[in-house]
Amino acid sequence: MSTNQPLWNIVALLRWTTGYFEEKGVPEPRASAEILLAHTLGMGRLDLYLRHDQPLTPEELARFKALILRRRLGEPVAYLTGHKEFWSLDFIVTLATLIPRPETEVLVEAVLKVCGEEGFPRAGSPSSRGAQPPAPSPQPNLAIDVGVGSGAVVVALAKELPELHWVGVDVSATALWTARENARRHGVAERIAFFQGDLLAGMRPAPWFSLMIANLPYVPRAEWEQLPKEIRDYEPKEALLGGEDGLDLIRVLARQAHEFLQACGWLALEVGAGQAGRVMELLDKTGAYDVLKTVDDYQGIPRVVLARRTEK
């Protein structure tokens, strides 16, 4: 693609770029072309078709060409634009954070269902619409996200469950910066306290939390080595690789979580394909839970393990 050609308009560029990505084996060629061109022009994807005959300036063409070349080499679209949609919200992502995935929305859905069954009011429900914000409580209802990453899950849940205050923990200071920024952008920063830490290390065991969620690294080493280039070479290895069997960190959290949960509090863990049974065994061995169940993702794979702390 020559940046000196004066007649490159939006529709011509989309057509050319889609064909180029198809030829080079780039995944989702049409979507990649649309997202990158919309990002270059500072408009939405729908606007590309509403303004299909708009020509690009030489500067815009140069910026778009640079993104095309990086995408051809395998760099994920989310890192090229710095954004990814999750739970219908726009999140900042960086090279220090895992790109939010559609299957992780199953974790959010599972937690919201549990909270609904337990009587937690949802944002926009009759009990919350038009109501004044609750008065500060000396002992607010606390929840925790262990391994917060970009903050996508905790921010989505904080918006849906306005009565909860949250703690977000991650070992990466850079990831925590991203999570804080996402919380600020979506108006929930005042209800999320972020801390750098390794899982629950450094916290005194006590029944602090009514809810604990975690999307920890769970990819086994053999599977890691077979991941597509755009995942293996760009996304943070420490956010994906979970040891030989994928359960290194989940195993640690499963041994400790009940010591921090209130009676009848819930633990929700995202797990990999084929791991749910082993994770439930780990939790069952603690003798601390009276309910253990799984929730399938959109492909029928048990993706979330839910465990309820006993009443005593």
Features of this protein?
2 domains, alpha/beta, 9 strands, Rossmann fold, 12 helices, 312 residues, Helicase, Ruva Protein, domain 3, seven-stranded mixed beta sheet
Task: Describe the structure concisely for a colleague.
The protein is α/β, with parallel strands linked by helices and 312 residues long. It has helices spanning 10-24, 29-41, 45-50, 58-72, 77-81, 104-117, 152-160, 173-185, 221-224, 229-232, 248-256, 276-285; strands at residues 83-86, 89-92, 142-146, 165-170, 192-196, 209-214, 261-270, 289-296, 302-309. It has twelve helices and nine strands.
Number of helices: 12
- Determine the N-to-C terminus distance: 68 Å
Report Rg.
22 Å
Lateral strand order in the biggest sheet: 5-4-3-6-7-9-8
**What would you call the shape?**
elongated
Structural class: alpha/beta
What's the helix-strand series?
Answer: HHHHHEEHEHEHEEHHHEHEE
Share in helix: 25-40%
Low-confidence stretches: 124-140
For the record, the CATH architecture of the largest domain stands as 3-Layer(aba) Sandwich
Number of domains: 2
What is the tally of beta strands?
Answer: 9
Percent strand: 15-25%
CATH topology of the largest domain: Rossmann fold
CATH class descriptor of the largest domain: Alpha Beta
Mean pLDDT across residues = 90
In CATH, what is the homologous superfamily of the largest domain? Answer: Vaccinia Virus protein VP39
Largest sheet: 7 strands, mixed
